[in-house]
Amino acid sequence: MPKVSKQVGEYMCTNCQVLERVVLPEGCNQVGNRAFWRCEKLTDIVNTEKIDSIGAGAFYYTQIDAQFAPLKYIGKEYYGAFDNNTRLKAISFADGIPFIPKRAFADCYSLEELAIPGSVESIGESAFEGCSGLKKVSIGEGTKTLEAYAFKNCSQASDFTMPSTIVAIGQKAFDNVPFPFEVEDGVSYIRNIAYSVSKETTNIVIREGTTIIVDYFRNERGISSVTSVSLPSTLKGIGSYAFTSARSLSSITLPEGLEYIGEHAFDGAKLSSITIPSTVTSIGEGAFSCENMVRVNWNAVDAIAKGPFSSSIEKITFGEGVKRVPDELMSNCSGLVRAIFSSTIEEIGAGAFSGCESLKRIDWAENSNLKIIDNYAFGQCKSLNEFILPKEVEIIDTLAFCKCDALERVILSEGSQLREIGQSCFADLNLLTSINLEASSAPYMIIGEEAFRNSSLTSISLPNVRIIHDNAFRACKKLEVVNIPINSPLEEMGDYAFYYCPSLSSFTFPDGIKKIGKCVLYDTSVSTIVLPESLEFVGESLAPNDIVKDVYVLFRNPEIAPNGVVHWSSHNMKTLHVPYGTKDAFWSMRVYSSNFNDCVEFGAPSYTETVDETSNINLSSLANVKDLSSAVVDGVYYAMDSQKGDGYDKAENCLVLNSTMNEAQMDEIQTANGNDISIVTHYNGIIMQLATGNRTLVLEGQTIGANKLMVKFGNEKAIEIDLPTRGTMAIPYQADEDTRVYIYAATAKTAESRTGYRTSAAANTVKLYDIKIKTDESDGINILTVSKDSGFIYNLQGQRMTETKKGFNIINSKKVLVR
């Protein structure tokens, strides 16, 4: 090799089957990975005295006997550095070398002595396995771990010095080694580690002071007869397969202080119950795969434990202090019927109860602090028909209830803090009919992709939802009602959100929404769509079907969204309704004119004019108005439902109100501060803007059947008026600022009543013949025409009296002060 070289590169002479001798340059200190790998005839190598770094597999299957400097590094990426080197007689390690890797010196059976410094924290698996000539081994203080088979088949190594720092010894690390074990009551120890049971016995007593029971501790021939195991208070760990097949062991007490239990540690034991101490942080798979086990008491505060139990478990109880249910803890425990949770649990891990097909009963602590249900936590719990969500739960993660085929109801506790429902959380649950999301008091909620796809929900309330992701309610074929308040914080609705919900006949986008994805209402029964002023984007094919007839656009500028706002793929939509004065701007853009048959302008409450002096509202002017569904005529706003017969009756010269409003609808409009979208989508009736001052509203009309005339001034309680025969009712009011007045019909008596004559009626309707606004006379006494008859006494609430009372009375149609 070149004299200037200080290192032998990786793969330099890999698999050189004829190579017998190598002369390295003086001063060479490094041999790279697999440099002489499988050079099986290589027996002589010169100038190795300064080499202190040897790569993985560097001398694998060579036959060299060389002097190396104390090694500072041995590579571990591939094969053992000297694996199967049968002529190597001595090796030394520099103080500071951190580890000896897997099979580094395996089958080097000419090695006779080892001195391993305490800087080596870990001696790897099979590191010296098969070193049958090894007689003396000294391991310095500081080494912590001997991995499996580390000294297996070192059949002459009878002189061992072991450090007190050893905390773990892998399975069969000293198999077929004449190690000088300490033996007590049939148990072999290496310092404070229980290594094996050296004889057949029915009782195993692990001495006090022992910290570890190693992997494969058991005596395979005698473990089946063991009936009792006593564990010390000092124990920290039980190794994998330590007591596997202890078929006669029916009980065991695990001490507080225990930290880990290896996989299959008690697999096959006769245990019927187990209590897990609070100090346990790790339990291996199948650790308690005991076919007789039916009860688990779990006290581990925060542990990792994937599938440690058998399918026979029927009940698990979580103790106070437990913070998290580990991922896959009870996975596929098909016999589990009941789970009892403590108040301290904050999280249920991923797949914690997945596949628990018999789980029917879940008991929450009254003051449960549960916040997170992780993904697939209750997946395939096929017997669970109701789930009560504790109040503090904030997140239900992806697929949390996937394939819970019997689930019918999800019940949120009042004041719930739920703010996120993950992807496909309740998807394809054909029996799920209800979830009361309106119980959530969280400031916002996010509904993930396909969260309720193909469920059997019939109605859903979304009061505080901020984002509805793609396909969230897709194919909910029984969904009839979606309640999203006008003032909802909803900002974004993803693609196909309500795609193929054929039972859905009405839908309201809230004021403030910014983005509506494509095909959101595709294949629904929604016939009228209102797009709020706040929108910045609407995806293509929003609702391309023959049912949609009217689309209302509430924003006035068609350029408000740079990419266009509506991209319809259907030509079946008939009418585009745009704000008053914007028809030309909208209709000049192809994105609108090419997708609608007609474009008409509509009014809105915000366009009404203030009545500031004595006025008569000319209802006869409505005779020539084509569309009163949302129109401003002479400064007054009209919202008439023509399908219910609302509109102007030319024969009687009156306005007919058949449609009614209820208290809840009016409350929602009030909550939204009476904005345009709340009115356009929810209101039927008349709206006027009245000026400040003392005035009187005079209505001439008739109420027939159950319907009554309602008048509501601003935020005040609505006044109910009953006029069984045609007559007038005058209502004085005083306003300190311009006030909106609502005039509408209602069936239920939800307001203060004013009753006139009563007669029977064949229909339920309200007719309005005249509306007047009168300014008070200078003496402050209002002129109120109560009825076409005279000689009657009324109070200011319009109630008829038999005699006058102190204060203001209405006598013979005049306001009179009685002292």
TrEMBL record:
It comes from the Bacteria. Pfam families: LRR_5. InterPro entries: LRR_5, LRR_dom_sf, Surface_bspA-like. SUPFAM superfamilies: L domain-like. This is Leucine rich repeat-containing protein. It comes from Prevotella communis.
